[in-house]
Amino acid sequence: MALKSIIFKANLAIADIDHGYYADHALTLARHPSETDERMMVRLAALALQAHELHDTCGGDGTLAFGAGLSDPDDPDASLTDFTGRKRLWIEVGQPEDKPLSKACSKADSVIVYAFNHAAEVWWKGIENKLSRLDRLQVWRVPTEAAQALAGLAERSMQLQATIQEGVLTLGSNRGAVDIECVRWK
Predict the structure, then answer these.
(1) For residue 2, which of 49, 79, 62, 71 has the smallest C-alpha distance?
(2) How many CB atoms lie within 10 A of CB 20?
(3) Contact by Cβ (8 Å): 105, 114
(4) Tens digit of each residue's pLDDT (9 = 90 or more) over 77-134
(5) In a 3-state reduction of DSSP, which class is residue 99?
(6) In the predicted model, is pLDDT for residue 39 greater than 60?
(7) Taking Cα atoms as reference points, which of 15, 43, 37, 35 lies closest to residue 142?
């Protein structure tokens, strides 16, 4: 018998000072049985970092949501879809292969990868040349320590505040706060 995903609820208050975006988001995250709290929380942080695109790209008329993630490799970890159904933003976390990223670039206007674990540098050195031709792709490195600290914020029901100022995301709850300054690789 297959294990079921665990459902997490997050009320995320975003204050993105860099982009002038301020909004509250009620989110549902389904954590696949093989997904760690760290990966799930990096997905949430990635969504917070890109939430401003809802207004910047779609003028507020779109849907920012989590995808099936590990349950469906053809679905993004998070995405922004406009009112016509067009994928404007495709977000992946981890160290995806080059072929799915190439496919994602053909389906969405912009694709962003947030690499986060201790093996990210090894992954990047092995795949960098294969990804250089994908001009719709951005690759960001989430520092390992910050990604690991995010796992400590995970709860089945979360009240989170995300503040983005000068490129730094501070994600906090009653369990503490984590500062994340991502480094752009591509």
Answers:
(1) 71
(2) 10
(3) no
(4) 999 999 999 999 999 999 999 999 999 999 999 999 999 988 999 999 999 999 999 9
(5) helix
(6) yes
(7) 43
